[in-house]
Amino acid sequence: MNNKFIFINAVRFVLLIALQVLLLNELPLGRAYIMVYPLAILLLPVVTPRWIVLLLAFFTGLLVDGFSNGGGLHTASITALGYTRSYILDTFQPRSGWDKMAVPNLSHQGYTWFFYYTLIGFSLHHILYFVLEVFSFANFFSTIMKTTLSLFSSLLVVWMLSAFFKRKIRD
Amino acid sequence: MRGIYYLLSRYYVLIIFVLLEAFALQLVYQSHKYQEVKFVNTSNAISGRLLGYVNSFYTFINLGKNNQALVEENARLRQQLAYQPGYPGMDSLLPGQSETYRYTYIPARIVNNSINKNVNYITLDKGAKDGIVKGLGVISSNGVVGVITNVSDDFSLLMSVISIKSLVGVRHKNTNALGNLKWDGRNPFVLQVENMSKTLPIKKNDTIVTAGFSSIFPPDIVVAKVLTVKPEESTSFYEMDVMLTNNIATLSHVYIVKNKKKNQVDSLQMLMSNE
């Protein structure tokens, strides 16, 4: 089971990063920047040690930066998400606490839970990304606009992807 | 000593986080401070090659549009050629006599492109091996694209004019008024031209060309068309929105401009600014 977990997560990392750097970075949308790779960090099993989550997030960021001339923006925002993930999970844990095998995804946790979880996670990542990108309060409303547009386009893609890969869970 | 062990075992995740985040923020700080992306960028062999393969697919999608642009350019060049004295043997023009001989053009293919950031970089498949150096201008068949900022052996990186750090000297074609082409970071299809005096008759759809005073771009390359123009309240200049004549998002082939007299011009201008 453990090996299967590692395999699934590794494949997911590779696919999401590839989707990001080969397709989404090239979309000529202009005002919205769709980023889906934070999903790879958010979907790691709950029991994953925090330092592993952190390192994975950091190297994911470096990889995405390296492929998109981000100049550290992706690294900084995804590393912060990697650190705060455990706190988000603590806030969102079920009444009986997290199961040992729990996976924070759509199939296991349901639509409402997954909606709020991704909303919080992606908001944090996107806000940090766009704030670091402008590095100042110039064009404040344009930055808010860009963040909101990007956030909801990213979430839309994430939800569609998750719904597509949703599995029936047998209890 | 036990205290340190205790702290490490209790807060090691926080410590790792602070270290990694500090490193990342240092990268962000550097990318804001300098023109080029220093540490991680697409001009390295691995990402450059991979993105090159993928981009040949995007090039294929835009093939029709790009062919059209090239055909138009061909037609324009043919027309110019017809007016050349002594064509087809161009012996009448001594090298260096004509302005056009100052510039040589190196064709390059776009490997990676973006328009959704504040500073947008484009990766090209020509590098130091092909004689590319930092600071050269890049144009497409129907407009300007940007300036080279990073060069590796096989690839180079250019900062496109759709960047808040970019600045290109331009001229209003009819009146010869000078100005600067900049971008405010909002809509990547609308750029701004600054410093054009309110007294001049500038209208919608007027043509903006390169000024040619810098050693980067040749003069009189068509850059943009005026979209909206209105006098600024507090200054003596126009507030002008322009649209580029080339669509940078779908470009696939560009020319890198080499100015044979760049060094001379630059050192002279350096002398001037030192005084």
Question: Would you kindly provide a written description of the structure presented here, covering whatever features stand out?
Answer:
The complex is a heterodimer of chains A (171) and B (275). Chain A has 171 residues and is an all-alpha fold. Chain A is built from seven helices and no strands. Chain A has one domain (2-164). The mean pLDDT of chain A is 89. With 275 residues, chain B is α+β, with helices and mostly antiparallel strands. Chain B is globular, with a radius of gyration of 23 Å. Chain B starts with a helix and ends with a helix. In chain B, strands 1-2-5-4-3-12 form a six-stranded antiparallel β-barrel. In chain B, strands 6-7-8-11-10-9 form a six-stranded antiparallel barrel.
Q: What's the gist of this structure?
A:
By secondary structure, chain A is mainly α. Chain A is 69% helix and 0% strand.
The greatest interface here is: A-B, 39 and 48 residues
Rounded to the nearest angstrom, the distance between the terminal CA atoms of chain B is 61 Å
Q: Give the amount of beta strand of chain B, in percent.
A: 25-35%
The number of distinct helices of chain B, counting runs of at least 4 residues, comes to 4
- Treating each run of at least 4 consecutive H or I residues as one helix, how many helices of chain A? 7
* Main sheet attributes: strand count, strand direction, barrel closure of chain B: 6 strands, antiparallel, barrel
Provide the CATH superfamily of chain B.
Answer: Rod shape-determining protein MreC, domain 1
Sheet with the most strands of chain A?
none
Q: How many strands appear in the DSSP assignment of chain A? A: 0
Helix-strand category of chain B: alpha+beta
Tally of domains of chain B: 1
Fraction of residues in helix of chain B: 25-40%
The SSE string of chain B, one letter per element, is HHHEEEEEEEEEEEEH
| String of helices and strands of chain A | HHHHHHH
